[in-house]
From TrEMBL:
Classification via InterPro entries: CarboxyPept-like_regulatory, CARBOXYPEPT_ZN_1, CARBOXYPEPT_ZN_2, FA58C, Galactose-bd-like_sf, Peptidase_M14, Peptidase_M14_domain
Region listing for Disordered, in residue ranges: 26-80
Domain F5/8 type C positions: 75-237
Organism expressing this protein natively: Oryzias sinensis (Chinese medaka)
Protein name as annotated: Carboxypeptidase X (M14 family), member 1b
Amino acid sequence: MAGLLCAALLLLSSCGRTQTFSALAANSSHPPAGESEATAAPASSTTETGKTAEETQGEEEPLRTQEEQEGPPELECPPLGLESLRVKDAQLRASSFKRRGLGPHRGRLNIQSGVEDGDIYDGAWCARHRDKNQWLEVDARRLTRFTGVVLQGRNSIWSWDVVHSYKVQFSNDTLVWRPSMNGSQEAVYEGNQDAETPVLALFNTSTVARYIRINPQTWYQNGSDGDICLRAEVLGCALPDPKDVWQTEPTLMDDQLDFRHHNYKEMRKLMKSVNEECPDITRIYSIGKSHGGLKLYVMEISDNPGKHELGEPEFRYVAGMHGNEVLGRELLLNLMQYMCREFKRGDQRVVRLVQETRIHLLPSMNPDGYETAFKKGSELAGWALGRYSYEGIDMNHNFADLNSVMWTAMELETERSKLINHYFPIPEQYTSEDAFVASETRAVISWMQDIPFVLGANLHGGEVVVTYPFDMTRDWAPREHTPTPDDSFFRWLAAAYASTNQVMSDPDRRPCHNRDFLRNNNIINGAAWHNVPGSMNDFSYLHTNCFEITVELSCDKFPHASELPLEWRNNRESLLVFMEQVHRGIKGVIRDRESGEGIAGAVIKVEEIDHHIRSVADGDFWRLLNPGEYQLTVTAEGYLPSSRTCWVRYDQHPTVCDFHLTRIPKRRLKGVPPKGRGLPKDPQLRLRQLRLRKLRSSTKHINQRRAAARPRGV
């Protein structure tokens, strides 16, 4: 009622004081009204750094100090949505702009520029004129209690432009403007010292209005060439319309889920609560530890947790590979809650998924990076803080580059029949203790070996698009369409997610940053976007049986908690539909004709598709394929080959194609050295297994050294 009363009585009014954080000014206090000692209102900066947040779990995980346990500062009001695009281009105006690519619609927090200077995708709003009369205006479209502004400089590889200080004005009609005050004088807020660090300014007194203007006062001059350029987010609480007594906030959906950001401790607590609520279909396990000692927890959802069932495919979602791309983490936490509750309610779609699929959800592959970003919060983490591992490794470039191994072999080998096209062993140099491989990457590779995954997706943020392999270009070009032999099915997988996503399927949405993926129906070959050597998608395809894609979930890498219910609504159907794709294609069991036992390591070849897969421990296999007629041939060490024709239909169930192989009569071979204990006879599988053993051994030694180096009790 206080906000409505202010709006009704005054055109513009001050409605209460708000807390101001200061990291750039020594004195963060403000003079009372009527005094004029200070004319500058200090702002909060994110330039400070801190150690990765860690916490205790018995004696196995490192302790955290009280300071490290603290989360981001609480903001009184959420962002309006310049970064997330909830604020439309039509709501942004400016006094002037240099060109279209530097128009007011580009003045959004964390927007990224294109590579070419002067295109339509530049990295800020830049004024045409260089004077103190320039402004960027935001229309909230309703009365809003404005509480603060977050500012950044221009994102560009060619130019360096920042605003050092600025004023703020408010209006209800764009005709009469009232300045933000600091006591009795007009407030001047501190801006940026570099182009990328977001700087928060909280107003001394919040103000109710419809429009807000940011008015730069000083900026980096660069001699006489410095431009007035900025990116911004505005903080404000929308007020009810006093003319509409029946107005209520729209209900997004009836899913009663935990819509907030969860740090490491809270994530473990939520996963435990889901496991306790649905103990018969869930299991929590760890696949390893981060460099900082935080466990990489996985939630398994299955009607028989902890066991691979013959003929049942294994599926995985991985989120948080880049620690600051947090939406995937929250969506997977929401997904495990949702599936638990819907299974108990008897939702037949969820029941069928749980009974016919073994699902694995890894919500945080990079918990160290997440904790770093979480401490700054959604608006202040910037574009890259927390992206990398504790050691500064980008995990999506950290998997073994098997593409180069394959392409080099293709160039050197003249006899095509000798080439391999699947199950490539890890390169020798990648397995050593000195290899620059993150602990988290090592853990995920070992996980891939332990579980016969068929399909997966890794969830990222910062764009809205689905990418599919290959992610690496063949000749190290910056970008080049580089398809796999299974390109048609990968395009189907990507389209299955994109076409059911409410944001991606919106034909009227605007591009996030510097590329319009609507032209590609929101799917693209990864290498055609940009070259990514050492990606998890490519490694998964070439080293295992698993097909994997990348989903870029939102323009905003770290959306505010208030936007999480909407993001869940945008992605819920897509997450379910994509899991259901694991049941497309062909499945079967390869057995010994005489004993009936399953044959592991058999090669399944599909005619005219130059990529094979292998049967797993019990002889079962899954080959993802589009509808059609296929000729399959199965070979195995010590058995005669077997071929048959299999039809894949359009329904949501795989075609069953079993094989029974006949043994080759045994012969006594002379001069053949004995095989190593526990190793397969197939030379390719032997080398693959030996390299994995070496990788696991080196990982164990690294972890032991780190544990010994930590102070006792930490």
